[in-house]
Design a protein that fits this description.
Helix content is 30%, strand content 9%. With 196 residues, it is α/β, with parallel strands linked by helices. α2 packs parallel to α3. The protein binds flavin mononucleotide.
């Protein structure tokens, strides 16, 4: 009833979805099986995505908290009801690495992964995850003032740091510039205005 009322007031051209608490983590409360039925009911009434959280309903809950701990609920909803209805499922909860994000997506456990506290801990998380995976699309653009730092800092054994040690007496000429501090090359800044 609530979703119907919101759907009616919300422009038809705009997406509407629901965040659910998949289990109450408490005897007698909602269970992850109930969550599938709840998701099915919301989908029947026009929800276009289901964002799957859990708990925070009763004080005496006993959540099984841990890495990616709510993803199994998203997985269950996606694969039992949402995918066949063309509805996206968002996994959330203690996901903190892009490896985990990619694993959840590639395994078909969710359509999107949302990170909350990870971004409070490191507000640059998305930019760094993009840089580390060589992603250069529109989904993560470095603000101009930070753009010079978008290369991952060289680590001890990277082959990016020059000069490299060499055992031959006459090593070939090597560029001595520290890569991180040379201005970005023209090809990388075609859409930027730079000063000297
Ligand atoms: C400061 C803070 C406020 C939050 N407020 C809400 C809220 O109002 N409604 C809600 O559904 N979730 C809320 N959450 C939960 C987050 O949306 C998210 O689901 C939760 O933190 C688990 O994801 P995470 O482990 O990536 O942070 C809040 C979380 C934090 C840390």
């Amino acid at each position: 009833e609530v979703l119907d009322a919101v759907r009616e007031a919300w422009p038809a051209s705009k997406t509407i979805g629901v965040r659910i608490s998949a289990t109450d983590w408490s005897p007698g409360g909602n269970t992850e099986e109930d969550a599938v039925d709840i998701a099915r009911a919301f989908i029947a009434h026009g929800a276009q995505f289901i964002d799957v959280s859990s708990g925070q309903i009763v004080k005496d809950e006993k959540p099984a908290f841990g890495r990616s701990y709510q993803t199994p609920f998203a997985d269950r909803i996606r694969n039992q009801v949402a995918a066949e209805a063309g509805v996206s499922v968002i996994a959330v909860g203690a996901v903190s690495s892009y490896d985990d994000v990619n694993s959840i997506l590639l395994a078909g456990r969710a359509d999107l992964v949302a990170l909350g506290r990870t971004h409070l801990y490191n507000p640059q998380w998305t930019l760094q995850a993009a840089a580390e995976q060589d992603y250069t699309g529109d989904g993560a653009t470095w603000p101009l003032p930070f753009k010079a730092g978008r290369r991952k800092p060289p680590a001890a054994r990277t082959d990016a740091v020059r000069p490299r040690l060499s055992l031959v007496r006459e090593a070939e000429e090597q560029e001595q510039t520290h890569l991180r501090w040379i201005p970005a090359r023209k090809s990388e800044t075609s859409n930027l205005v730079t000063s000297a």
